[in-house]
Amino acid sequence: MSSKLINFKTLGDDRGSLIALEENYNTPFAIKRVYYIFDTKAGIRRGYHAHLDLKQLAICVKGSCKFLLDDGERRETIELSTPNQGLLIEGLVWREMFDFSEDCVLMVLADEHYDEDDYIRDYKKFIEVVKNEKK
Ligand code: TYD
Q1: Which residues fall within 8 angstroms of residue 61, CB to CB, at 6 or more apart?
Q2: Residue 20, domain member (yes or no)
Q3: Ligand 1, residues 34, 35, 65: which to mutate, most atoms within 8 A of Cβ?
Q4: Mean pLDDT of the chain
Q5: Is 47 in the pocket of ligand 1 (CB under 6 A)?
Q6: Exposure winner among 24, 34, 110, 112, fewest CB in 10 A?
Q7: Is the CB of 49 under 6 A from ligand 1?
Q8: What's the pTM value of the predicted model, to 2 decimals?
Q9: More confident residue, 31 or 1
């Protein structure tokens, strides 16, 4: 499974906390896009896709949510619940996000601009692509 958790250094003092993300210093790729998911309604599950060629770093800057990651052979669930941790997702990985807390703000850094052609939104097709990749 090509996913891993990255810990960020929290800079803090008696005023509170601060985390700085600097391209290629503590992010594993050059950042072309940032988006964030918030105000997610109760019980919503989203994602349901894989990418052909995209690196992403997901950081739950507020609240918590869970990721289901599936590389076609193994599945794992990872909870993000702290702003000092980022989940790196790269390679062929099907992802679903769920259990969003009401206050959840999920920020995602990506190494490419938005490109619908890079998405695999059908699970059966995802499994076919994984199998072809291994041939
Ligand atoms: P969608 O892919 O459905 O989100 P998720 O995978 O988290 O369920 O994206 C929702 C909409 O936003 C969809 O119309 C595509 C659009 N979108 C962009 O325009 N730019 C982006 O960077 C992203 C991630 C989505």
Answers
A1: 36, 83, 105, 106, 107
A2: no
A3: 35
A4: 96
A5: yes
A6: 24
A7: yes
A8: 0.95
A9: 31
Catalytic residue among 33, 49, 62, 66: 49
- Written as one string, the DSSP assignment of 36-68 is EEESPPTT--EEEEEESS--EEEEEEES-EEEE
- Ligand 1 centroid vs 47 CA: distance in angstroms? 9
pLDDT at residue 1 in the model:
66
Reported as a single tens digit per residue, the pLDDT across 98-122 is 999 999 999 999 999 999 999 999 9
pLDDT at 63: 98
Tally of domains within the chain: 1
Distance 36 CA to ligand 1 centre (A): 10
Percent of the chain with pLDDT over 70: 98
- In the annotation, is 49 catalytic? yes
Domain of residue 115, CATH code: 2.60.120.10
Cβ atoms of 98 and 17 within 8 Å: the answer is no
Helix (H, G, I), strand (E, B) or coil at 120: strand
Residue range 47-59: mean pLDDT, rounded: 98
- Judge whether 32 lies within some domain: yes
Within a domain: 17: no
